[in-house]
Amino acid sequence: MQRTEPFAGTVEVPDARWDERDGVGHLLTRRKMWIGGLAVFAGVGYLVSTALGGSTVYYLTVSELRALPESQRSEPVRVAGHVAPGTIVGLGGGGPIRFAITDQAAGTQQVAPLPVVYGGLVPDVFNDNIEVVVQGHYTGERFEATMLLAKCPSKFEASTTVQ
Fold it and tell me: Count of CB atoms within 10 A of residue 141's CB?
Protein backbone atom coordinates (compact mmCIF):
# COMPACT_ATOMS: atom_id res chain seq x y z
CA MET A 1 0.00 0.00 0.00
CA GLN A 2 1.43 3.34 -1.01
CA ARG A 3 0.89 6.53 0.80
CA THR A 4 -0.07 9.43 -1.37
CA GLU A 5 -0.05 13.14 -0.74
CA PRO A 6 -2.01 15.75 -2.59
CA PHE A 7 -0.01 17.72 -5.13
CA ALA A 8 -1.26 20.75 -6.99
CA GLY A 9 -4.79 20.33 -5.92
CA THR A 10 -6.23 17.24 -7.58
CA VAL A 11 -3.19 15.24 -8.76
CA GLU A 12 -1.75 12.75 -6.27
CA VAL A 13 1.95 11.79 -6.44
CA PRO A 14 3.41 8.85 -4.45
CA ASP A 15 5.81 9.83 -1.65
CA ALA A 16 9.32 8.62 -2.67
CA ARG A 17 10.48 8.45 0.96
CA TRP A 18 7.78 5.88 1.76
CA ASP A 19 9.04 3.53 -0.99
CA GLU A 20 12.57 3.62 0.40
CA ARG A 21 11.45 2.81 3.93
CA ASP A 22 9.06 -0.03 3.17
CA GLY A 23 10.10 -1.20 -0.30
CA VAL A 24 13.41 -2.14 -1.85
CA GLY A 25 15.57 -0.73 0.94
CA HIS A 26 13.80 -2.85 3.56
CA LEU A 27 14.22 -6.03 1.47
CA LEU A 28 17.95 -5.37 1.02
CA THR A 29 18.37 -4.89 4.76
CA ARG A 30 16.61 -8.20 5.44
CA ARG A 31 18.72 -9.99 2.83
CA LYS A 32 21.93 -8.61 4.34
CA MET A 33 20.86 -9.79 7.80
CA TRP A 34 20.12 -13.32 6.52
CA ILE A 35 23.44 -13.51 4.66
CA GLY A 36 25.31 -12.27 7.74
CA GLY A 37 23.50 -14.76 9.99
CA LEU A 38 24.26 -17.64 7.63
CA ALA A 39 27.93 -16.61 7.46
CA VAL A 40 28.18 -16.57 11.27
CA PHE A 41 26.41 -19.95 11.51
CA ALA A 42 28.72 -21.47 8.88
CA GLY A 43 31.79 -20.10 10.68
CA VAL A 44 30.73 -21.55 14.03
CA GLY A 45 29.92 -24.89 12.36
CA TYR A 46 33.36 -24.97 10.74
CA LEU A 47 35.12 -24.24 14.05
CA VAL A 48 33.15 -26.95 15.87
CA SER A 49 33.84 -29.54 13.17
CA THR A 50 37.58 -28.84 13.09
CA ALA A 51 37.79 -28.93 16.89
CA LEU A 52 36.01 -32.27 17.07
CA GLY A 53 37.85 -33.72 14.10
CA GLY A 54 41.11 -34.00 16.04
CA SER A 55 39.59 -35.44 19.15
CA THR A 56 37.43 -38.17 17.69
CA VAL A 57 39.31 -41.44 17.41
CA TYR A 58 38.22 -45.06 17.35
CA TYR A 59 38.33 -47.16 20.54
CA LEU A 60 39.32 -50.76 19.81
CA THR A 61 40.54 -53.92 21.49
CA VAL A 62 43.79 -55.61 20.45
CA SER A 63 41.99 -58.24 18.34
CA GLU A 64 39.84 -55.57 16.62
CA LEU A 65 42.96 -53.54 15.80
CA ARG A 66 44.69 -56.52 14.21
CA ALA A 67 41.58 -57.18 12.09
CA LEU A 68 41.60 -53.65 10.61
CA PRO A 69 42.23 -53.41 6.86
CA GLU A 70 45.44 -51.74 5.68
CA SER A 71 43.54 -48.65 4.49
CA GLN A 72 42.40 -47.77 8.03
CA ARG A 73 45.71 -48.31 9.78
CA SER A 74 47.00 -44.80 9.04
CA GLU A 75 44.22 -43.22 11.13
CA PRO A 76 44.84 -42.53 14.84
CA VAL A 77 43.15 -45.07 17.11
CA ARG A 78 42.78 -45.84 20.80
CA VAL A 79 43.39 -49.38 21.95
CA ALA A 80 42.39 -50.80 25.32
CA GLY A 81 44.07 -53.78 26.90
CA HIS A 82 46.07 -55.14 29.80
CA VAL A 83 49.86 -54.89 30.09
CA ALA A 84 51.28 -58.35 29.48
CA PRO A 85 53.39 -59.51 32.46
CA GLY A 86 57.16 -59.24 32.03
CA THR A 87 57.06 -57.15 28.84
CA ILE A 88 57.88 -53.68 30.25
CA VAL A 89 61.34 -52.56 29.07
CA GLY A 90 62.98 -49.16 29.62
CA LEU A 91 60.80 -47.94 32.48
CA GLY A 92 62.72 -45.26 34.40
CA GLY A 93 65.49 -45.08 31.79
CA GLY A 94 64.49 -41.69 30.42
CA GLY A 95 63.87 -42.92 26.89
CA PRO A 96 60.88 -44.55 25.27
CA ILE A 97 59.42 -47.58 26.99
CA ARG A 98 58.35 -50.79 25.31
CA PHE A 99 55.66 -53.14 26.51
CA ALA A 100 52.92 -55.36 25.14
CA ILE A 101 49.18 -55.32 25.70
CA THR A 102 46.59 -58.09 25.39
CA ASP A 103 42.81 -58.20 25.36
CA GLN A 104 42.60 -59.84 28.78
CA ALA A 105 44.54 -59.87 32.00
CA ALA A 106 47.01 -62.65 32.72
CA GLY A 107 45.41 -66.02 32.18
CA THR A 108 43.44 -66.82 29.05
CA GLN A 109 45.05 -65.02 26.11
CA GLN A 110 43.61 -65.84 22.71
CA VAL A 111 45.36 -63.12 20.67
CA ALA A 112 49.11 -62.51 20.51
CA PRO A 113 50.23 -59.50 22.57
CA LEU A 114 50.51 -56.17 20.72
CA PRO A 115 53.96 -54.54 21.06
CA VAL A 116 53.72 -50.86 22.06
CA VAL A 117 56.38 -48.11 21.99
CA TYR A 118 55.69 -44.97 24.04
CA GLY A 119 57.97 -41.98 24.67
CA GLY A 120 55.91 -39.72 26.95
CA LEU A 121 55.23 -39.47 30.66
CA VAL A 122 54.32 -42.78 32.29
CA PRO A 123 51.52 -42.85 34.91
CA ASP A 124 52.57 -43.82 38.45
CA VAL A 125 50.26 -46.87 38.55
CA PHE A 126 51.69 -48.30 35.30
CA ASN A 127 52.75 -51.90 35.93
CA ASP A 128 52.19 -55.50 34.80
CA ASN A 129 48.54 -56.60 34.38
CA ILE A 130 47.25 -53.01 34.69
CA GLU A 131 44.45 -51.98 32.33
CA VAL A 132 45.64 -49.29 29.87
CA VAL A 133 44.42 -47.28 26.92
CA VAL A 134 46.99 -46.21 24.32
CA GLN A 135 46.42 -43.75 21.49
CA GLY A 136 48.52 -43.57 18.36
CA HIS A 137 49.17 -45.38 15.08
CA TYR A 138 49.47 -49.07 14.27
CA THR A 139 52.29 -49.78 11.84
CA GLY A 140 51.41 -53.44 11.30
CA GLU A 141 54.30 -54.62 13.46
CA ARG A 142 53.93 -52.45 16.55
CA PHE A 143 51.78 -49.71 17.99
CA GLU A 144 53.44 -46.29 18.27
CA ALA A 145 51.63 -44.56 21.12
CA THR A 146 51.37 -40.81 21.62
CA MET A 147 49.23 -41.09 24.75
CA LEU A 148 49.10 -43.61 27.59
CA LEU A 149 46.32 -43.81 30.17
CA ALA A 150 46.41 -46.31 33.02
CA LYS A 151 43.33 -47.34 34.95
CA CYS A 152 43.73 -47.14 38.69
CA PRO A 153 43.20 -50.39 40.56
CA SER A 154 39.73 -50.71 42.05
CA LYS A 155 41.16 -51.09 45.54
CA PHE A 156 44.43 -50.32 47.22
CA GLU A 157 45.73 -52.70 49.82
CA ALA A 158 46.95 -51.40 53.16
CA SER A 159 50.53 -51.84 54.10
CA THR A 160 51.20 -54.85 56.37
CA THR A 161 54.31 -53.38 57.99
CA VAL A 162 53.95 -52.10 61.55
CA GLN A 163 56.07 -49.23 62.72
Answer: 8
One-letter amino acid of 157: E
Structural contact between residues 76 and 85, judged by C-beta atoms closer than 8 angstroms: no
Note the pLDDT of residue 67: 83
Distance CA 3, CA 147 (A): 72
- The whole-number average pLDDT for the span 1-14 is 56
Give me the percent of the chain exceeding a pLDDT of 90: 29
As a dihedral over the C-alpha atoms of residue 148, residue 153, residue 154, residue 159, rounded to 10 degrees, the angle is -150
pTM of the model: 0.59
The answer to whether the Cα torsion of 98, 103, 104, 108 is positive or negative is negative
Q: Of the candidates 25, 113, 27, which has an alpha carbon nearest to the alpha carbon of residue 63?
A: 113
Q: Domain 58-150 maps to which CATH number in 2.60.40.1120, 2.40.50.140, 1.10.540.10, 1.20.1250.20?
A: 2.40.50.140
